[in-house]
């Protein structure tokens, strides 16, 4: 519901919710702004961007973590699963080199208590990379790891079912000429044939052993969803077709789509549009993906452009992702839950974050 009322916090938790104004002498008047649950982000690549803000530039590790943290907190995100690529074999990619430094520096910042948001890790496992299970295994016992996704960016399927879109995307991203692209394409096809099947089985088994939630990535077909459901996957990330999204919903998987896709009106690689899935009742969770500020804007757009009631629209960035990850203490405003809260004012249709609290302590 949306109510006019007051909220009390004690010992980091919501202690009471009442209608009408508060009589407490030290009450903070929000002047008509919304007070929302803190946003829960399951998949953002933003931390990696802070380590490499420009091609060829590697930023110092701890300042990179702090910069990322400040950005997500300012976007109203109080719980974030930082997505790290495990097994990126692209020539010249800094991701493999960065992985150890990111995990180490994030752990240091958490231990020091210097972060505004609560950070956890989401390991994105590229199945066609030979050493992917070993990289996952090296971090599997890290208490910050909570979510693991299985991905396969081999050309001709899933995200890149169109070879022409794949060709244009990778030639631009890596500055390849035709011969270099063809060589990369052949290597990836060969790696897929050799490693994707065994690696998927190894990663799924390890995730179950460690109690990590599983997500599938870029499912395109009913068969992809059937495989994910058989593996015990909980979240279907970025299904590329309506058929896959519908099958995911039928199989009990939560459907996650990108907030940038929704705001921009479609996928940058020509796949399913988040707005279309929302209009069809097939959208459960939004992720900021690569723009932290997109998360709350997309939720308000669901209300305005699809006609979803505001509480249900906001659940896609609060209660639903929390539920998908088994986080029963957040994502809603209710007595006894964590006082993770966001103050928001709508200005000309744009939600503007004006204050953020985590466990009752103001961080923005």
Secondary structure blueprint with pairings:
Blueprint: E1 5-10, E2 13-19, E3 34-37, E4 39-44, H1 46-51, H2 61-74, E5 77-86, H3 95-112, E6 118-126, H4 132-139, E7 145-151, H5 163-174, H6 178-210, E8 213-217, H7 222-230, E9 235-237, H8 242-250, E10 254-258, H9 259-264, H10 274-279, E11 285-287, H11 294-306, H12 310-315, H13 319-324, E12 341-347, E13 350-358, E14 361-362
Parallel strand pairs: 4-5, 5-6, 6-7, 7-8, 8-9, 9-10, 10-11
Antiparallel strand pairs: 1-2, 3-12, 12-13, 13-14
Helix pairs in contact: 2-3, 4-6, 7-8
Q: Level of helix content? A: 40-55%
Spans of at least 5 consecutive residues with low confidence: none
Total count of strands: 14
* Basic shape: globular
- Quick one: biggest sheet? 8 strands, parallel
Looking across the biggest beta sheet, what order are the strands in?
A: 4-5-6-7-8-9-10-11
Brief overview, please?
This protein has helices at residues 46-51, 61-74, 95-112, 132-139, 163-174, 178-210, 222-230, 242-250, 259-264, 274-279, 294-306, 310-315, 319-324, and strands spanning 5-10, 13-19, 34-37, 39-44, 77-86, 118-126, 145-151, 213-217, 235-237, 254-258, 285-287, 341-347, 350-358, 361-362. It is α/β, with parallel strands linked by helices and 364 residues long. Strands 4-5-6-7-8-9-10-11 form an eight-stranded parallel β-sheet.
């Amino acid at each position: 519901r949306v109510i006019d009322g007051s909220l009390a916090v004690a010992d980091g938790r919501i202690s009471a919710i009442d209608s009408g104004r508060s009589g407490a002498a030290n009450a903070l008047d929000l002047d008509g702004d919304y007070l929302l649950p803190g946003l829960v982000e399951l998949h953002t690549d933003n931390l990696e961007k802070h380590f490499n803000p420009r091609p060829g530039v590697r930023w110092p590790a701890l300042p990179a973590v702090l910069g990322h943290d400040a950005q997500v907190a300012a976007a109203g995100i109080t719980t974030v699963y930082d997505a790290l690529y495990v097994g990126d074999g692209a020539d010249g990619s800094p991701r493999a080199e960065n992985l150890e430094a990111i995990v180490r520096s994030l752990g240091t910042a958490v231990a020091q208590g210097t972060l505004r948001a609560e950070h956890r890790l989401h390991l994105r496992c590229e199945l066609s990379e030979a050493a992917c299970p070993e990289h996952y295994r090296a971090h599997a016992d890290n208490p910050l790891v909570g979510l693991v996704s299985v991905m396969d960016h081999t050309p001709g399927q899933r995200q890149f079912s169109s070879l022409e879109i794949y060709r244009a995307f990778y030639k631009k991203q890596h500055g390849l000429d035709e011969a270099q692209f063809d060589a990369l394409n052949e290597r990836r096809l060969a790696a897929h044939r050799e490693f994707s099947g065994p690696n998927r089985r190894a990663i799924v088994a390890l995730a179950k052993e460690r109690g990590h939630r599983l997500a599938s990535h870029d499912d395109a077909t009913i068969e992809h969803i059937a495989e994910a459901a058989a593996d015990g996957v909980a979240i279907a990330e970025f299904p590329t077709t309506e058929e896959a999204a519908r099958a995911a919903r039928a199989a009990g998987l939560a459907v996650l789509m990108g907030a940038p896709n929704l705001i921009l009106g479609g996928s940058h690689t020509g796949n399913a549009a988040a707005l279309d899935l929302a209009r069809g009742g097939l959208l459960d969770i939004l992720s900021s993906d690569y723009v932290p500020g997109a998360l709350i804007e997309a939720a308000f757009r669901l209300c305005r452009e699809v006609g979803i009631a505001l509480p249900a629209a906001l659940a896609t960035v609060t209660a639903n992702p929390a539920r998908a990850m088994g986080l029963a203490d957040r994502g809603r405003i209710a007595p006894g839950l964590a006082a993770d809260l966001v103050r928001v004012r709508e200005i000309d249709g744009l939600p503007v974050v004006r204050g953020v609290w985590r466990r009752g302590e103001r961080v923005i």
